[in-house]
From TrEMBL:
Domain of life: Eukaryota
Protein's UniProt name: Core-2/I-branching beta-1,6-N-acetylglucosaminyltransferase family protein
UniProt entry keywords in alphabetical sequence: Glycoprotein, Glycosyltransferase, Membrane, Signal, Transferase
Entry GO CC: membrane
Any one Gene Ontology molecular-function term assigned to this protein's record: glycosyltransferase activity
Signal peptide extent: 1-23
Keyword Lyase: no
InterPro entries reported in the protein's UniProt record: BC10-like, Glyco_trans_14
Length: 340
């Protein structure tokens, strides 16, 4: 018989391949964003309502950016003298040479950020980080609009605040169930083999990357584990796949469709674009007529924000800011009464 020391050595030697395979398996089971998951877990149980607070509910503006905030002077004018109505949270891609606005936007916080990429779940993670920070930082943050560095406001802050708070139980998020590319997008995510059982095709939705969520819906998003486990994985094929346009509308359609308007409040011009970025407005296109046109939809709502604008648009936008963008008119009262 083999001596005990020799038997132990042989057993350990034979066990090495098994231990290696086990370690690899455990590595795969360990979430690559464990710190994010801890943050999301804490924020998902943040206070639910602001009804017990006597202070005015706030708007938490969430900026998701991979370049400088070129329109910060316009946002300064938008926010000026009304710090009781808002907070600002900025997720800036740390791999890009981004210069903070000077002077900084009022009540703004650059949150701990990670790299992002278009058509990649990193954009979902970034949006969730912003939502989590807003929930944990200030219990008065009631609405959270997600914006980019290319977004501009289309109305004054008082009107924007009144518009949102006149519908305190609804999130403004585009949810499309009959998009002509819906099935192709589902297949690009891996189809039934990758998405079942959590997500059958009948529940799959698409929508705009930019939305406005209530505090309650932000908490629901951050509590989600099972659907996020599907969407945090990169798409398995080279076909067009935009998880940042899939995850939020799908989740909220499954959890609380009746409290979602089904449309976004951020106007984007997709004319002439397919599988690419939207129209980029340039300085010669800026006019009062354009701004008035961007506000209107073909439905019963109004757009509060618009994108996508080149940095060169800032001077002509500043020229018409007081007389056009931030001048409240009768259009505001009409639309406040016409929605929902």
């Amino acid at each position: 018989m083999l001596s005990s020391p020799l038997l132990v050595s042989l057993t350990l030697l034979l066990s090495l391949p098994l231990l290696f395979l086990l370690s690899q398996h455990l590595h795969l089971l360990t979430p690559p964003d464990a710190d994010d998951l801890a943050l999301f877990r804490r924020a998902g149980w943040a206070p639910h309502t602001t009804s017990h607070l006597s202070a005015t509910p706030k708007i938490a503006f969430l900026f998701l950016t991979n370049s400088n905030l070129s329109f910060s002077p316009l946002w300064h004018k938008f926010l000026e003298g009304q710090t009781h109505l808002f907070n600002i949270y900025i997720h800036a891609d740390p791999t890009q040479p981004i210069t903070p606005p000077d002077p900084p936007l009022p009540r703004s916080i650059f949150i701990p950020s990670k790299p992002t990429a278009r058509a990649h779940p990193s954009l979902i993670s970034a949006a969730r980080r912003l939502l989590a920070k807003a929930l944990l930082h200030d219990p008065r943050n009631h609405y959270s609009p997600l914006l980019s560095q290319h977004c501009i406001p289309l109305f004054s802050l008082p009107f924007t605040h009144s518009f949102l708070l006149s519908h305190p139980h609804h999130s403004f998020i585009e949810i499309l169930s009959h998009d002509p590319n819906l099935h192709a997008r589902y297949l690009a995510r891996g189809g039934p083999r990758a998405m079942l059982p959590q997500l059958p095709f009948s529940s799959f939705r698409v929508g705009s990357q930019f939305f406005v969520l209530t505090r309650r819906h932000a908490r629901l998003v951050l509590r989600d584990v099972s659907l996020w486990d599907k969407f945090r994985r990169p798409c398995p094929s080279d076909d067009p796949c935009y998880p940042e346009e899939h995850y939020f509308p799908t989740l909220l359609s499954m959890l609380d469709p009746h409290a979602c308007t089904g449309f976004t409040l951020t106007r984007v011009n997709w004319t002439g674009s397919w599988d690419g970025p939207p129209h980029l407005y340039t300085a010669p296109e800026i006019s009062p007529e354009l701004l008035h046109r961007l506000r209107h939809s073909n439905s019963s709502h109004v757009y509060l924000f618009a994108r996508k604008f080149a940095p060169e648009c800032l001077p002509p936008l500043m020229d018409i800011a007081d007389d056009v963008i931030f001048r409240n008119s009768t259009i505001g009262h009409y639309f406040l009464l016409s929605l929902i």
